[in-house]
Amino acid sequence: MQEIVALVSRDSAIEMAYKPRTAYFKRCHELGLKKPKGFFDPKIRNVHPYIARRARSAARFINLLALMDVTKTRIPDEDIARILGIDCLQRAIENGFPPLLSFTRPNTDLLKKYIRNLDRIILLDPMAGGGTIPLEGALMGLETHAID
């Protein structure tokens, strides 16, 4: 689990930073992934520089940990990594995107293997702010309600 936490922390730091493409190349090297000639950098992080915005990779991980806690489910570390989308980073790079979890989709099929009735779980975020937690909850297949 420490390796996953470290990976998500590093991913979040890069996602929240205003760094150029060189940070993406360095991240590819850290992950041992084959880097392309360039990256499409949509600069999503620059669209809404709200002070309380959250990194999507961290929000995805928090949602998964909350699901595991609420349902009293134990998921092996390697499957947690796959649910988060870590195994899809190379595919994101091949499509020209940076090696960040926010450019992958969570593996909802694998998540449903561990958490029954996933479609009956409701995520409520009464202080949604920029909406990162509800966005990741919706991508994970949860019914999501957000208020701010």
General description of the model:
The chain has eight helices and two strands. By secondary structure, it is mainly alpha-helical. The protein has a two-stranded parallel ribbon with strand order 1-2. α4 packs across α8 (132-139). The longest helix is centred in the middle third of the chain and has 16 residues, at 56-71. The protein is globular and about 45 Å long. The model has no long low-confidence stretch (mean pLDDT 86).
Topology:
Layout: H1 2-16, H2 21-31, H3 44-47, H4 56-71, H5 77-84, H6 89-94, H7 108-114, E1 122-125, H8 132-139, E2 143-146
Parallel strand pairs: 1-2
Helix pairs in contact: 1-4, 4-8
Task: List its salient traits.
2 strands, 148 residues, two-stranded parallel ribbon, single chain, mainly alpha, 8 helices
Task: Give me the number of helical elements.
Answer: 8
Class of secondary structure makeup: mainly alpha
Q: What is the percent of helical residues? A: 40-55%
- H and E string: HHHHHHHEHE
Distance between the termini: 32 Å
Kindly report the average pLDDT value: 86
Give the biggest sheet: 2 strands, parallel
Q: Whole-number radius of gyration?
A: 15 Å
Q: Detail the poorly predicted runs.
A: none
How do the strands of the widest beta sheet line up side by side? 1-2
Q: What is the tally of beta strands?
A: 2
* Cα shape: globular
